[in-house]
Structure formats: C-alpha cells, structure tokens
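ENTRY TYPE: paired fold submission
RECORD: A
CONTENT: sequence, then structure tokens
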Amino acid sequence: MFKSLKIYQLLFIRLIIILSGSGISIFLFQKGLVFTAIFGLLIIFLLVVEMYFYVKNAFLLYDRTITSILQNDFTSDFSKHKSYQNYSNLFKLYETLKNKENEQVSKDIIYRSILNNIETGIIILQKEGNDWNIFLMNDYFSKHFDVPKVTKWNYLKSHLPSLCEIIEEQSFQEIKTSLEIRVNQQDTQTFVMQTSRSEIYNRDYCIVLLESIQNVIEKKEKEAWVNLMKVISHELLNSITPIRSLSQNLQDLVQQETISAEDLDDMKSSVATMLRRSDHLQQFVESYRKLAMLPSPKKEKIELLQWIENSLQIMAPLFKKEQIEVINTIPFDRKLNIDPQQMEQVLINLLTNCIYSLKETQKKQIIISAEVKEKRTFIMITDNGSGIEKEIESKIFLPFFTTRKEGAGIGLTLSKSIVEAHSGYLAYRNEEEKTSFVICLVDS
C-alpha cells in the first residue's frame, strides 16, 4: 500500500506519526506513566532518525541519477529503487538517455569500422580554442603513412610536414589539390587531397581525404581492361562458335563416300558463312588496331571554316540522299592548330552519328555552331533527332559499343581519342529535345 505513495506523502505520514507519538508521550507523562512516556519518546527518536536517513537516501539517489546523466555514465541500474515513485519520470529519462547512448555507441562503432575499411586516408580535425586536434584517423591513413593514431596536430606535422603545411597555408579551409608524400621511406607518391569544413553543435571540424592517384589509375585501368575483355571475348565467341560448328559440319560431309547436290549446296553455304564471319572478325581486329595504334597528330594551321566546309563537302551526298538540312551558323573565322585529316575524321564520325539519329525524324536538321571562351574554341554539332537514351549515355564513348547493327562501335571512341590527342575533349549534351556533341580545342 505504502509503495504506491510519493516521497512527500511518506514524509507527511512520518511527521504525523512523530507528532502524534510526541503528544501521546506528553499525555502519558502528565498522567504519571513516566516509563511508558520515556519508551514512547525513544520510539519517536528512532522514527526521527529513520526519517533523516530516508530523506538523505532520497536526495543522494536524486543527485546520483543527475550526476550519471551529466557525466554520460549509464552503467548504473536504478530498477531496484522503484519504491521512489517521485523519481519515476527521472528514471525513465535515465533509461531513455541510456538507450540513446547505447544506440549512438553502436553507430559510432559501425561508422568507425566503415572508415577503417575504406582505402582512402581520412583524418578529421577538431578545433579547440585556437588549436586543432585530431578527432579521428582511420586505419588506412595510419598504416599507409606509418603514423601512430595521435591526437595532437603538432605531432602529425612532425611526421607529414608537406601535408600539414598545405592545410595550414589555406587556414584549414576547403581545398582540392595534389601533393607528393614520401611513404615508408620509399619513393614519393602523388596524392589527391580534398578538405572540407563543417560546424556541428558549435564544434568546428575539418575533414581531410587523401587518395593515391596511382590507386585511382590502377582501378580505372582494371575496370577498362575488364570491359574491353568482355567486348573482345563476346565478339570472338560470336564468330568462332558458328565457324567451329560449320567446320564440324563440313568435316562430316567430306567424310561421306558420295556427296549429293544438296550436300554440295550445304558446303557452299557453310563456306560463304565462314567467310562472312571471318571478314567480320578481321574488321573487328582492324578496328581495335586502329584504336590502339592512333598516330600522333601532325598539326598545322588551318582555318576553322575551311575545316568545317571540307568535312561538309565529303558528307554532302549523304545529306542530299537523306534530305537533311545542314545549317552552318559560325559567324567568325580563326586559325586552329590541328591535324586536318584526323579532325576531318572526327567531324565525319559525328555527322554520321547525326544522320543515324535523324532516321525517324520528319524535318531533319543539323546545326553547326561555335564560340570562343578563354582561349578555347568550342564547336557544337547539334541535331533534332531521337537522341541517345539516358540508360546508355555513359557507354557511348566505350570501345565497340554500338546500337547499330552495321556499326563497329569505334566512331565515337576514335573521335574522343583524336580530340584528346589535340589536348581537347569531346562531350555529349542532351537538352531541349536536341542532341549536341561539343568539340573543345585549346588555342596554341
């Protein structure tokens, strides 16, 4: 019954008992019952002592709970103090914060585990006053740069001065640059460094990411080789499998004692198919050789409009046949330092792509435009055709990737390689129902 009462209610009951006992003891003393009165006063004294310790324990429990919350110490168990009904909400608060703390600790463990398994060097700096300390350093950074997991910025600076000096020069602000760092007393390696600054709950953090350029290149090279081997193996199997099957069929026919007219027709058909597949395989190998052995550009000064007009003249019969209107809107002329033959091939490849894109379009139109920005010349070839589906936009420059049955899949790849050999780039844009290829050439 008393367990459900609040502290102040229990204190009130104790006070009533003590006051009542005192009154009864005084009454007994007046009646001459001295020993009974003394016994009653003794009991009252014991009740006062018990009330003192009860109040003391109640306040100690309150202080202990509050202290645990303030110090993030959630190791205590207050379930045995449920008799203190006044503190039920306090205990609930404690349990709620305890669960949140455990959840946060679990998340921290997971996040640190993720960061420690990333093959990128990561350090997170935290500002304390005017100084910076290391809040977190992942395993990759520590092992790769042979730096113990320290907490002081000056100690890290003594190990990696080139890294720390760049960060200090930029006042711990956001930067992206490359730098050379000597790793494990070996040759220097080039790293891409990127930093970001963020403020969370009035705490200032600086996040530093370091990634080896060599690792990035090796990863990209591996992905490129895997994709290339997939394409090559696919093409080889597409040709070798039917050739082998037809060869087996021919072998069976040749081993017969007599060859009928029907068998002879089968043999002729098989040989013709084998020749077609062999020609396709030869064309594929030639295409690969053309990509792999692209000669260096033999640059010479040529007028922009002359280069454009030369390419348009070559393509004029096809434009006439397909009823395509070509509009050259370039309002200026300027000299470009390019290989005329190679860059004509680029324009021819892009214009051929436009012709294919315009197959299903009623009013076919190709617009050629150009502009100059910051010593760069941009040439845009735009058509109003069907465009390129978003699902394959990222693949259009891959070797041997094509959506045409008769295509070899090297036109855009070869064009991209030629433009890059001229220190420029080739890009694709799809906006407002128009498809554009942009050639960027740097003036030299």
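RECORD: B
CONTENT: sequence, then structure tokens
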Amino acid sequence: MLSKYKTQEEKYEYISKQHGGYYRHHFTDHAYLYNLYFPPKAVFNHLKANINNLVLNYPMAQNALAELVGAIINQPLERIVVGNGGAEIIKILSGSLAKKLIVPVPSFNEYVNAAPEGHVVEFPLDFPSFELDVDKFADEAIKVGADMAVVVTPNNPTSLLVPKIDLIRLAKKLKPSKCMLIIDESFLDFADNNEQISLEKDIAKYPNMAILKSMSKAYGICGLRIGYLLTANTNLASSVRNGVHIWNINGFAEEFLRILPQYKQEFEDSCKVVKTDRDIFYENLCTIDGMTVFKPDANYIYCRLPDIALSGPEVTKRLFIKYNIYIKHNVGKTQPDADRYIRIASRTKDENATLIDALKDVMYFKSK
C-alpha cells in the first residue's frame, strides 16, 4: 500500500479523519478504548485451527446467536438481540425506532449522529462535575415527549458511572410516560463491583428498560464486531430483531461467542490488570500541575487541561507529531469549554508512563 502521507504532520491529518485501521499506521493508540489483555492466545489458536470452516460456511442467524450470548450472560434468548457491534443496534434504536430521543451530553456521539435531524434532545450534564441528575433528566424527557432515553454508564468520554439506584429510579419515573430507558453498559466490566452495579440480572423487573453492550471494548475484539441488546420488553426486542440482517454476524464472531465461556477466568483476570494499570495512570496524571483529572470508572481517563496549557486539539496534534502517540481531544462534543478537555485510553503501565512524560513536554510548547 502506498503511503498516504510524507510527513508526521500529514500522517496526523490523515489519521485524525479515520475511524479505525490504526494498527496499519504504527503509532501508540491511546484513543480507542479496548482491553489489551484479552483474548488470550488460545482463542486465536482456536480460530486459526478452524479458519477453513469459518470462511467457507454461512454463519448462524439471530436465534442461535442470541442463545450463545444468553449462555454467557445467563439470560433467555428471547430477551437478546445480537448486533454487528453495538453500532448496528444504536443505528436501529436511534435511526428507526425512537420518535424522540433524549441523551445526556457529552456522551458517545453515535446515538445523536444515527438519529434523523430534529429527533434528538441533548440534555447537558451538570457542569463542571459532568454528573447526571436523573430526576432533572427524567423531568426533561417527560416534558419534551421523549419515547427513548439513553444513559451511557460509565459514560464516554467522562468515564463516570451513574449509580444503579439512580438508574432504577430513572426507569420508574419514565415508565408512566412510556419512555424506554436504554442503558449502555459497554464499559461496565472495568468498574469496581461491576456485577453488583450492572442491571442485566434485574432486567425482568423493568419492562421499559434495555441494556446495550458493545463487546468490543471489554473483550478486546474490535475487529470481530459483536454487540447485544438485552430487554424483557418483547415488543422492543422484536422491533430491533426485525432491523438486523439475517446473517449480520460473521463466522469468526460466532465462533468467539461459542468458546467464550471457556475463558471466563481469563477475562476476569484481564479486567483486573486493566483496572490496576488505569488506577496507577490516574494517580500519575493527578501529579500534573493544574490538570483536572476525573476519577475513572472505565479504562480511559477524562482530563481538563491546565488553563495555561495549549488547547486540546493543539496538544493532541503535537503529541502525535513529536511522539507518535494519539489521544482524543473533545472538540465536537456538546459541552462548555470542549477544546480544554482530552480523553486518554489507559494502556500498559510503561506506555502510560511514556504518555505522561510526553504530555508534560508538549502541553506548553509554542510554535517554533
């Protein structure tokens, strides 16, 4: 493949417009948010050993896939819809089913981007804490006539968790207005006591609730594209299922789901390592003078740059050009002072330490 850039600056301009394929361009990726310690080599060896059948044959369709996911999360298949990543399900929810969607901001942009113009209400999180006041959120949802409300927990980009008790209260407040609550738990595996704070086990109690989960993040399988929706609302499940293609999941993803229960302990161990690295990273980021660092519940950290530092876009660009390290600035998110914020994915301890040194070096540099 011919190089699409001649200088590091051209490389940055090219990469900043891409949505994946980063491994082809040889830089340290502190932008995308996935588990570096899973899957283990045994999973790759299994996929390689079965590559002929996985390539040559049709994969299974929705019911059989839902049964595989159900075995992982201990839920009946009729409550599950399996998507080609969480993005496919978001497209159906936001783009087709929701007549009026309300979402706290800043958050994952795809919920807004996938919706038709005029179908979304953006609800600002409390600033500067970025905490969600669920009572105010519920009141606004009812006021604007929303039929679908989304909460990402831990949130992206803030990495902040919404307490389980608050989400239950939110679901109850929305129920009389027939508003579905979509809870995106894609990063919950990196939170402490995640099994106690997840609402998956309680889903049958709340017919106006659905859990959405992208498996790419926690399981480190961005290229396999697997996500699922879990709900006890049979009408919602049926509507989402009708929106997916008959063979929306490829054979490699199907096989991964089939063998995943064998690696439960390895997965849990990998999440512990992620959390340990992240916590050390957080503590070290807190030592930077003037930096506001939000205590993370996910595998990434949200920061407000010091007032005397360069802007988020400028710091991001300089970090890439000088050190070949890529992070995300927050321009494009709906929030005050968006250009002062950055989001940094936690990687290994050594890579995190290298990033902090590099960040200190470029934050205050002026143009030569």
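NOTES ON RECORD B: Residues 215 and 227 are 5 Å apart (CA to CA). The chain has a mean pLDDT of 96.
STATUS: closed
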